Amino acid sequence: MKKSEFIWLDGELVEWDKATVSVMTHTLHYGTGVFEGMRARETAQGTSIQFLNDHVDRLYRSAEAYNLEIPFNKNVITNAIKEIVKVNKLKSAYIRPLVFFGDGEMGLLPQDIPVRVAIAAWEWGAYLGDEAGSKGVNVCISDWQRISPKSFKPYAKGVGGYMNSTLAKIDAVKQGFDDAIMLGDTGTVAEGSGQNIFMVKDEQLFTPPIETGALGGITRKTVMEIAKYLDIDLEEKNLTREDLISADEIFFTGTATEIVGVVSIDKIAIGDGMVGKITSNIRNKYLEIVNGKEDNFKHYLTLI
Ligand SMILES: Cc1ncc(COP(=O)(O)O)c(C=O)c1O
User: Which residues does ligand 1 sit against, CB inside 6 Å?
Assistant: First the structure.
């Protein structure tokens, strides 16, 4: 990880190495915290944060879902996100706001425990590697099931839920795959370990509904808008492993991952085993949008 100079912690700019917490931090013990993953990029207009309002809104929705009352209003957090990119003099960055219960008491009921907020930003390249965009990734279907929406709130980006994702990711990498696709509790496809998933069949796009346990991804929502813009039919539909295997194209979406083709599943080639045409078109449009080159989507960029 390429450290930056400062982290925003509870309203103050703190040197990166001094932004520390007690080992008795409640979220460290019980996992109740929420976070966001966002990106800023250098555009012709200057460094811009992409989908800033969507991410801040989801952070507050996630916090509310898990009973964390953020002690700052949305304006303060929005400005802090911009500030942390600026003070670290980052031209492009991955930004990680984290809301967590601090320390003070033990026990599941987080009573008399302060809600704390940290916002870090640092340089971080493509999550699945520099070549993933052009060559695609090889994945497996995980033996680990996505946590059921009956057991957590999939629309919220909660810290503890990532134990489930991490199990799937580690197992996939141990077997030599780049990542994993997880099925939901009814056996249909939910999402990747840290990405949403789309499938192309006969020029039409399909993605599983979030009721499968998939996160309501902001890149997922953007791809839905891109599909409309490019006149590609899209349907939210339950998909099986067999649907995926017989797909023409598959791709992952996410802020860290961006848009990356899935070229094989369990060593079976998808389509011709290369990143497909529709995947490439959508990826290119996405990159135009986040790089400030698509006027019709410029409202999604916030100059810092
Ligand atoms: C489990 C999971 N699903 C989907 C996504 C994609 O969401 P977004 O596009 O908002 O980054 C992420 C991103 O972090 C994720 O962790």
Answer: 37, 165, 191, 194-196, 215, 217-220, 253-255
